[in-house]
Specification:
single chain, 500 residues, 21 helices, 2 strands, globular
């Protein structure tokens, strides 16, 4: 019998708190201020519990496993808070907190939609649950909650293309869901289980299951769509340009990391024998994505679209780290994932802030050019964020790039290293170009800077954290390294879930 004070509940509460918070927020619809405050309080409480989960797992070296209804795995529903899940959940909920703060200070009409904060909490629930669940079917269920929440949040956008972008996101996500269901069905037919620990053990015993390789292909396609990996990226630029700023900041920073999480689970737990082939595919697609994303970001006409293509390139860096497959490169991939989530959320919030102060609310360069001349604080934050994206010290982006570069040197993969170096220059080019146009050039005729708009608190908090992690990176690097070492020992995960 468990009590609420036992560590097992630390794997449940990060899901339960935002879900319960969403129900209460639904009842608070007539009272927007109270609803917004409640949403922030619920997300902060969930973040605190997620931090406790990470600390508990990190200090003990053992996952926190919650077996729903006291049904032993693989028969019941398992929630598994190992180091990888705990790091990703803390990252997700930290950015989600700042997203709520931004929404509370936003002038978007969308944030006044009665269900906006309700859906924000269900978005957090879906993403958190997908990372903490111990079986593939429940991962699918949580992913669907994530998709539905993101679709509706985009559809209520002030942008006239919001509904179109929501349809695109929904239908491409529907395709990903179809792929995932095919993978689930193939694995269940072949091995008779969907619990990831049990599945890993059974695949290890029988690596030639009838539908194993089709299942691997379907899962790869699923996570590629979720992370907008080239060539499954085509939905992302339109989607992020049209979504409300608070929403696009979440989707382009932490929601796309669900796919990264899936790739790590595939290569370190589910498909150990097949991992080299999977990593090779990810390495190739990562390199192509870095080049394509960087070149596309330079050529775009909208700040948010530029940052959306930048995400394609930045995810490419992460895939290269996963593709190399060493402890150091996996450490670099995890650090890169965490830092990019903070940086990209901040940059999209700053783009939304500038658009909210323009005389015509838009993130198009033709509209925001020169608007930043009267917004020096935002200019400083955007400049620092651009440095972080390009990997320039003293930001956390520099730590990410250096770890990845060092792991590449040890692998002697000079083609990928050359690509990383060139892409960093491209990143500096398009962020500098955006900075010059917004803060240094004269505005077009009829364009002026409004006296009020969105608030800067949320991006300021994120950029401050980016600087702190650039100067004091050792805690993040250490937990990422310990996570990488944990992932090497897949038997530890299996034993924790299934027992001896």
């Amino acid at each position: 019998m468990f009590t609420i004070n036992t560590p097992q509940f630390l794997a449940l509460l990060p899901i339960l708190i935002p879900l319960t918070g969403a129900v209460v927020a639904l009842l608070l619809r007539p009272y927007r201020r109270i609803q917004g405050g409640w949403t922030l309080a619920a997300m902060l409480a969930s973040l605190a519990v997620s931090g406790a989960l990470l600390w508990t797992v990190w200090q003990s070296g053992q996952p926190v496993v919650y077996q729903s209804g006291s049904w032993a795995a693989p028969f019941g529903i398992s929630l598994v808070g190992d180091l990888l899940a705990a790091v990703f959940v803390v990252m997700t909920q930290l950015v989600m907190v700042t997203g709520i703060i931004y929404a509370l200070g936003s002038k978007d009409d969308a944030v006044h939609y009665p269900g906006f904060f309700v859906l924000f909490l269900t978005l957090a629930t879906g993403l958190t649950g997908a990372m903490l669940t111990g079986d593939l079917f429940n991962m699918y269920v949580f992913a669907e909650l994530l998709v539905i929440s993101g679709t509706v949040l985009t559809a209520v956008s002030d942008d006239k293309f919001g509904t179109e972008a929501a349809y695109k996101y929904f239908y491409i996500s529907l395709l990903a869901s179809f792929f995932m269901l095919l993978a689930i069905g193939s694995l269940y037919v072949s091995y008779g289980t969907l619990n990831m620990a049990d599945l890993s053990w059974r695949i290890g015993q029988n690596p030639d299951g009838l539908l194993l390789y089709p299942a691997i292909g379907f899962l790869l396609a699923t996570f590629m769509v979720k992370s907008a990996v080239f060539p499954f990226h085509f939905w992302q630029p339109d989607f992020h340009a049209a979504a409300p700023t608070a929403v696009s900041a979440m989707l382009s920073s932490v929601v796309v990391k669900f796919g990264v999480y899936g790739f790590l689970r595939m290569t370190t737990l589910l498909f150990i024998a097949q991992a080299p082939a999977i990593r090779f595919v990810l390495l190739i697609l990562g390199v192509v994505g870095i080049i394509f994303g960087g070149l596309s970001a330079i050529g775009t006409h909208n700040v948010k679209r530029m940052l959306a293509y930048s995400t394609l390139a930045q995810v490419g860096f992460i895939l290269v780290g996963i593709g190399w497959g060493t402890v150091l490169s996996t450490t670099a991939a995890i650090v890169f994932t965490f830092n990019h989530s903070l940086i990209k959320a901040a940059m999209l919030m700053l783009a939304g802030y500038v658009a909210s102060r323009a005389s015509v609310k838009s993130a198009a360069f033709t509209v925001v050019t020169g608007v930043g001349q009267k917004l020096p604080a935002a200019g400083l934050l955007f400049f620092l964020g651009g440095l972080a994206l390009a990997g320039i010290p003293p930001t956390s982006g520099f730590v990410s790039k250096m770890l990845l570069f060092n792991s590449g040197v040890r692998r002697a993969d000079y083609v990928a290293l050359l690509t990383i170096g060139a892409a960093s220059i491209l990143t500096l080019l398009y962020t500098t170009r955006a900075f010059q146009r917004i803060w240094q050039q004269e505005p077009a005729k009829g364009i002026y800077t409004k006296s009020s708009g969105d608030q800067l608190l949320a991006p300021a908090l994120l950029i401050t954290l980016v600087l702190v992690l650039g100067v004091w990176a050792s805690p993040l690097v250490q937990v990422a390294q310990d996570t990488s070492l944990w992932l090497v020992r897949s038997a530890g995960y299996i034993t924790a879930v299934l027992g001896g």
